[in-house]
Amino acid sequence: MNTGGTTGDASVGAGSPTAPHRLRDVLLLPGRGTATLLLVVAALSAASLLSRALAGADALGGVPGLDNLERWFYVDREGGVPAWFNAVLLFACAERLWQVSRAARDGEHPQRRWRRHWLLLAVAFGYLSFDEMSAVHEIVIGPLRDGFGLTGFLSFAWVVVAVPLVVAFGLLFVRFLLAQSRAVRRGVLLSAAVYLGGAVGVEVLSAGAYSALGEDSAVYVLAAGVEEALEMAGLVLFLGVVTTVLRTRPARPAVVTLPKETGPQRATA
Question: Would you state the pLDDT for residue 134?
Answer without folding.
Answer: 84
